[in-house]
Each structure stands twice: as structure tokens, then as C-alpha cells.
């Protein structure tokens, strides 16, 4: 069996990447392809704001290999506005829209609001049981009770394990260790959740979201514990996906590859990442 670690970022296009990681002024239909030369996974955050058209999703599939992983977030209308209740029509529309991804839809990501607490787990259980079995599901919770109360932790884990769903930790512990030092960090300081660290995998395909700092060395220092966890998961036969965030995300593609390189230094049998295409420098003529 091939040992494979997937790594990626919170998005596949960012102005700060142009001319560094990807070519300048790429058309929309080429941006994901260029990003996929750096990373083999990406968070599908845009679908949180609206269900895309099938035609748009088909272009994502066309730009990536079948082994590329998109963790696609369910729209906020389903998770935040309706809180998983009376959403059958919205879910059908979303599932139809993302169908062109095929195996690239690594997991459907159910990010729940901070107000969705332990008492709401039966709603989540019912929702997951009604979802089609051909997809994998991964749930991100932000209510503190799920992390600080052992009974609530166990209750959520049981609900997820009953439907083979994963629990996505969003590790912000390194970010919140010291006060912000940039505008991007100050903005993230007020918006990102402060959740206790969780490093438990429920399925064979765990997913981690990690938030570092705008200083690369601080980001690398903060993920050292994850190198141990991810290496252990791979040795157990799991196939993890790790998303590296920083407040400005300016260096995120390189950092994601750096994480992969650090794991591969421990596990040389790990399949390498693709080689990025060289980026031509911007010229004046």
C-alpha cells in the first residue's frame, strides 16, 4: 500500500502568490491547476457562502488529478442558518453540484457554529444518518463543551463513529501563544476560535487544520507536535490530510510542502509531492 500524506492551504488562489508560486494573471480556469503543482489538497471554503454551479465544479475536476483532495464545506444555509434542520432540498442541490468532483471530494465538511453544543448532538446524528453513504463526512465543532467535558466529548465521538465521520480539529494553540504582531494577526486574533488541542483520529482519513503565525519559523515551531501525530497515523496505515494556515497565508503553499518534507524525512517511503512548475518572473515588456 502506498503511504500518502496530503497537504494544502485554505484556498487555491491568493494575490500574494502571483509571481512566486503561480504565474501572474492566471485565468480563473487555470488557478487550481497551478496550485495543484504545489499541494495535493485544498480546503473548499468558498462553498460555505453559496452552492456553486455544476459547471464551475466540473472545472475544478478538470484542473486536478483524481487523487487530489478537496474537503468541501457545506453551505452556511445548511449548517449555520438552518442548523441541519429542514435542509433536504438544500442538501440535494449541494450534492448535485459537487458530483462532478468524484473521488476528489475527499470529505464533505460540516463546520458547525460555536452555539451548536453538546445538547444538539442528536440533530447532528440524525443529519449524518440521512446523508448518502457514498460520501465521507468530517465535522468541525467550536463549542467549548465538546473539548472540556469528557461526557460531551464521548457523546460526539460516538455519534461520529456510528456514521464513520471524522472530527476535524482546528489547532489555533500556537497562534494564541503570544500577542499579534501584524495587521493580519490582529484580524485573526479577533476572529479565530480558541479551541483546546485535539489530536485524536476517528477514521482512516483524519483531517487537521493548523493555524500558525505570519513568521514562518514560529509556524514551524508550532507544528512540531503534529509531526509526531501525523507520522504515527501514517505508520498505523491512516491517510491524513493537513491544512496549513497563517493569518496572511502569503507563504502557505511553501509551508505546506515544508510540513510534508518534514514528515517524509521521518518516513522516506512517503510518496513525494508533485514538482511545481517554474514561475516566470514578471517582466516590464
Automatic annotation (TrEMBL):
Superkingdom, natural source: Bacteria
Gene3D superfamilies linked: Protein of unknown function UPF0759
Pfam family, one: DUF72
SUPFAM superfamilies: TM1631-like (SSF117396)
PANTHER family (UniProt xref): UNCHARACTERIZED PROTEIN YECE, UPF0759 PROTEIN YECE
Protein name (database record): DUF72 domain-containing protein
Organism: Dactylosporangium siamense
Amino acid at each position: 500500500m502506498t503511504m500518502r500524506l496530503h497537504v494544502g492551504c485554505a484556498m487555491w488562489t491568493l494575490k500574494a502568490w502571483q509571481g512566486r508560486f503561480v504565474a501572474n494573471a492566471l485565468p480563473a480556469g487555470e488557478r487550481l491547476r497551478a496550485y495543484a503543482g504545489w499541494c495535493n489538497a485544498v480546503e473548499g471554503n468558498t462553498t460555505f457562502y453559496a452552492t456553486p454551479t455544476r459547471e464551475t465544479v466540473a472545472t475544478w475536476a478538470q484542473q486536478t488529478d483524481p487523487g487530489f483532495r478537496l474537503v468541501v464545506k457545506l453551505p452556511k444555509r445548511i449548517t449555520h442558518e438552518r442548523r441541519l434542520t429542514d435542509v433536504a432540498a438544500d442538501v440535494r442541490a449541494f450534492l448535485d453540484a459537487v458530483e462532478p468532483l468524484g473521488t476528489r471530494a475527499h470529505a464533505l465538511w460540516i463546520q458547525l457554529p460555536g452555539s451548536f453544543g453538546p445538547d444538539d448532538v442528536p440533530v447532528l446524528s440524525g443529519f449524518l444518518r440521512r446523508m448518502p453513504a457514498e460520501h465521507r463526512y468530517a465535522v468541525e465543532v467550536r463549542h467549548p463543551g465538546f473539548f472540556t467535558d469528557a461526557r460531551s466529548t464521548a457523546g460526539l465521538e460516538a455519534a461520529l463513529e456510528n456514521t464513520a465521520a471524522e472530527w476535524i480539529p482546528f489547532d489555533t494553540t500556537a497562534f494564541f501563544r503570544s500577542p499579534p504582531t501584524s495587521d493580519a494577526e490582529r484580524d485573526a486574533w479577533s476572529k479565530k476560535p480558541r479551541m483546546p488541542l485535539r489530536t485524536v483520529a476517528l477514521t482512516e482519513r483524519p483531517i487537521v487544520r493548523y493555524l500558525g503565525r505570519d513568521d514562518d519559523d514560529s509556524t514551524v515551531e508550532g507544528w512540531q507536535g503534529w509531526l509526531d501525530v501525523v507520522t504515527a497515523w501514517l505508520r498505523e496505515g491512516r491517510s491524513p490530510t493537513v491544512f496549513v494556515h497563517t493569518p496572511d497565508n502569503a507563504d502557505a503553499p511553501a509551508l505546506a510542502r515544508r510540513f510534508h518534507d518534514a514528515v517524509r524525512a521521518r518516513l522516506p517511503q512517503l510518496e513525494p509531492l508533485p514538482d511545481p512548475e517554474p514561475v516566470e518572473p514578471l517582466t516590464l515588456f
